[in-house]
């Protein structure tokens, strides 16, 4: 008896971490073979023993050539991505292979904050006043062109990295100096992105912040979850901590948020695939801060479970998106009725991480599903705005959003992280 060949799906990622493992588990449930394309060493022979295709995000033409060669040997049924830079490469690969998904043009625009602002304003959507200048621009010239309070941000870094609120010229000067130092770091310069030589200054938008997780199908948005961010995000930095799904405020604002994100996604050119949007809501409307051409980052997706009237077990976000990428109809799956949440454990101060206590006590909190510490002993911890990671994640469910919120905060209270100062290297004065 002939058997149909196993379908293969390519997942473009920066590393094979927690989120890629979640997609691996989803692929096993769906019955497809998951192949990775990651930015690992191309010289060593399969260093991670996962048969991944080595790519370089700053060399997309060569990366697409390698992916196309692998496709000719064993075709891919879909190409997916986790992360902003991988989303761009995945889009280029899909276009080369003739597979459905967001266009490369839209994926590039989605990770470019200036292009996002330009496209949303052109579409007539609520947008803050903004200017873009070279990083070398003098502070006096910047101050003359902006109205305080304002927000200084890089053009092409993910999340809240490098984003700072400033209320006067002195704060603007300090923020610009911090941003210049950040953008000069080797880990950023290695990306070879011309956008890293620019800075964006825009008016501060007051209001409550929400996030929307969704999926576009032929230009139509389907909302998978609206996350409430219960902690104020008013600066000077914008470190996100708690995401709550199923809150009353999220439900009340959902129609306005969904309409704004749908319009923003189309204005960006995002028509088919996952989207993750960040919004500020106030009396003037819904301001879409960004619409990413990818799902929610890290392992935050663990806070989402989807149910179907005929299913005996819930479905993960990764499985839902995998099935959607393969062309399956996932419209019958709805987020569970229980409130759920995730806390991205913030880094309290710069230093060397040496350990944690209280994890088991945190897991014993009623409503807590799990506590995952992702920091590694010996790792240098860097808080925002320079940092790009968290200590870990706490996941919880509750009959009410308030119960889930309390569980997250109580679990966090029980954790104690040991961080020692990182000592500067002193140069010898002896000749």
Keywords:
12 helices; alpha+beta; 4-stranded parallel sheet; Dna Ligase, domain 1; Rossmann fold; 431 residues; 8-stranded antiparallel sheet; Aldehyde Oxidoreductase, domain 3; 31% helix
Can you put this structure into words, describing what you see?
This protein is of the alpha+beta class. Among the domains are: 8-109, Rossmann fold (3-Layer(aba) Sandwich); 129-203, 2-Layer Sandwich (Dna Ligase, domain 1), CATH 3.30.1490.20; 343-431, Aldehyde Oxidoreductase, domain 3 (Alpha-Beta Complex), CATH 3.90.1170. Helices cover 31% and strands 28% of the residues. The chain has 12 helices and 22 strands. It has helices at 18-30, 60-73, 84-97, 104-110, 113-122, 139-145, 169-183, 186-189, 248-268, 317-325, 359-363, 401-414, and strands at residues 8-13, 33-38, 53-54, 78-81, 130-134, 150-154, 164-166, 198-203, 208-217, 220-228, 242-245, 273-282, 285-292, 305-307, 315-316, 334-335, 339-345, 351-357, 368-373, 380-381, 392-398, 416-420. An 8-stranded antiparallel β-sheet has the order 13-12-9-10-11-17-21-19. The chain has a 4-stranded parallel β-sheet with strand order 3-2-1-4. A hairpin with a 2-residue loop joins strand 12 (273-282) and strand 13 (285-292). Helix 2 crosses helix 3, helix 3 (84-97) packs antiparallel against helix 4 and helix 6 (139-145) crosses helix 7 (169-183). The radius of gyration is 22 Å and the shape is globular.
